[in-house]
Design goal:
The protein is α/β, with parallel strands linked by helices. It has eleven helices and ten strands. The strands form two sheets. Strands 1-10-9-8-5-4-3-2 form an eight-stranded parallel beta sheet. Strands 6-7 form a two-stranded antiparallel ribbon. Helix 2 packs across helix 3, helix 6 runs parallel beside helix 7 and helix 7 packs across helix 8. Bound molecules: 3-hydroxy-3-methylglutaryl-coenzyme A (HMG) and magnesium ion (MG). Keywords: Lyase, Metal-binding.
Length: about 280
């Protein structure tokens, strides 16, 4: 039997958060519903962040309320603090994610605090989530490069990843936020993280600015990772990482994994339909 690889779909959240034009709530719901039919086990639907910081995600609760939930699919949301966690749980998120950075510059620009402050801010979220039996994923951004501070040391990534794991994050997603990493640098970063956390708890989250994302996935597969974040149609970017392009396209990763003999459980025809709809949302403002 083919070995399974999980693709964690980012399109509705990481994909749409960077769109300049405000996308209608109904279109966001339609995208999630199309994705629900593709065979994903995990879809990141939205973010419960400050609407002043990311206006595109201001309708997070309406999107969560409007989607048609498919049994067996985990519908997840980003939560930067307790307020976000409470909003996400009230809206019915099955899983939440806290997000830290391996670089100080990005931490300050993205969530308005230092790395250490962010970890302290996440602790009560993890405590409450444990009581509520809500799984928490942890992101580490800027795992090789930061748009403000430049190159990031693998050890710095390992430290933040370990702190999130020790706090109780079930899975740590390692983000090449800028999409500038090469396979060698991803390899060096992973070696440092793998000294502290097993591959079964890690995910690769690669943006595709320089076109290396698929090779970075291959480098990560070689080191035992079996979960990758991707966005249908290659949607995305980050409002606080100027110039960063979309997440690696789900349909491209699914095709690569299929060629390599892995099983993603995804339906390529339905994926293509969802990708076409995702592209249609990218009209200029
Ligand atoms: P702050 O301004 O320091 O927060 O922002 P604050 O606690 O001082 O609150 C300011 C105002 O925001 C208050 O409202 C709060 O109530 C409100 P006011 O009293 O002024 O009317 N507020 C909230 N409202 C709704 N939901 C909340 C919330 N929290 C505060 N959860 C904060 C700090 C973290 C809130 C802000 O910086 C923020 O929301 N940042 C999010 C930025 C973001 O979403 N970035 C993109 C996602 S990260 C990413 O894309 C990377 C990733 O994909 C991985 C990778 O690629 O590397 C994950
Ligand atoms: Mg991202």
């Amino acid at each position: 039997m083919a070995e399974a690889v999980t693709l964690y779909e980012m399109g509705p959240r990481d994909g749409l958060q960077n769109e300049a034009r405000l996308i209608a709530t109904a279109d966001k719901i339609r995208l999630v519903d199309l994705l629900s039919g593709c065979g994903f086990s995990h879809i990141e639907v939205t973010s419960f962040v400050s609407p002043k910081w990311v206006p595109q995600m201001a309708d997070a609760a309406e999107v969560m309320a409007g989607i048609t939930r498919k049994p067996g699919v985990t519908y997840a949301a980003l939560t930067p603090n307790l307020q976000g966690f409470e909003r996400a749980v009230a809206a019915g998120a099955d899983e939440v994610a806290v997000f830290a950075s391996a670089s100080e510059g990005f931490s300050q620009r993205n969530i308005n605090c230092s790395i250490a402050e962010s970890l302290e801010r996440f602790r009560p979220v993890l405590d409450l989530a444990r009581t509520a039996a809500v799984p928490v994923r942890g992101y580490v951004s800027c795992v090789t490069d930061c748009p403000y501070d430049g190159p990031v040391a693998p050890e710095a990534v390992a430290e933040v990843a370990e702190a999130l794991a020790k706090m109780g994050c079930s899975q740590i997603s390692l983000g090449d936020t800028l999409g500038s990493a090469t396979p060698d640098r991803i390899g060096a970063m992973l070696e440092a993280v793998l000294d502290r956390i097993s591959a079964s708890r890690l995910a690769g989250h690669y943006h595709d600015t320089r076109g290396f994302a698929l090779q970075n996935i291959t480098a990560s597969l070689d080191r035992g990772l079996r979960v990758f974040d991707s966005a249908v149609g290659g949607l995305g970017g980050c409002p606080y990482a100027p110039g960063a392009k979309g997440n690696v396209a789900t349909e491209a990763v699914a095709a690569l994994l299929d060629d390599m003999g892995f099983d993603t459980g995804l339906d390529p025809v339905r994926l293509a339909r969802a990708a076409a709809f995702a592209h249609s949302l990218r009209r200029p403002a």
